[in-house]
Design goal:
173 residues, alpha/beta, Rossmann fold, two-stranded antiparallel sheet, 15% strand
């Protein structure tokens, strides 16, 4: 693990940005819960110079709306092979695997987590996943794990205070 080399954070959606529950009502409308604390952590990251991408196997208009609200431009949905998509993204951004920190919560994330510099999972991921990653967050998916991961990386890179001041200045204007 080398925090100083991180230039891209990649997140899974279900179980990372959300609690993993996929709720359908009688009209087959889907709903998900996102945490505002994670959202503010993502806004903080946007002042650091570190890119953020979301790569998920499912497709959801709800996630599109969340990404639009948070101004996340690198969203890839319906991805069957996250390793291939990440490789393509790295080539597009002119980055290397050592530049990637990835947070996932299940086996479909493991091929990327095995290859990237820093891998993490929320505290409610299954034990087998927790045993294979570099970091297990204290918080659960959809309950602040993303913010915890972002803040840890920013603090390790010495970018936290500066990014926080920039965010606060934006919120004051």
């Amino acid at each position: 693990m080398n925090f100083s080399k991180i230039k891209l954070i990649i997140l899974d959606n279900d179980g990372v940005l959300t609690d993993g529950k996929i709720i359908y009502d009688n009209n087959e409308l889907e709903s998900k819960n996102y945490n505002a604390k994670d959202g503010l952590g993502i806004k903080l990251l946007q002042f650091s110079g570190i890119e953020l991408a979301i790569i998920t196997g499912r497709s959801s208009r709800i996630l599109e709306k969340r990404c639009k609200d948070l101004q996340i431009k690198l969203l890839f949905q319906g991805v069957r092979n996250k390793l291939r998509k990440t490789s393509e993204l790295l080539e597009e951004l002119n980055l290397k695997w050592e530049n990637v920190a990835y947070m996932g919560d299940d086996w479909n994330d493991m091929p990327v987590m095995e290859k990237c510099n820093i891998s993490a999972t929320p505290s409610d991921a299954f034990d087998d996943i927790q045993n294979k990653v570099d970091l297990v967050m204290k918080r659960k998916g959809g309950e602040g794990a993303v913010r915890e991961f972002i803040e840890l990386i920013l603090k390790k890179q010495g970018k936290y205070e500066e990014s926080l001041q920039k965010l606060l200045n934006r919120l004051r204007s």
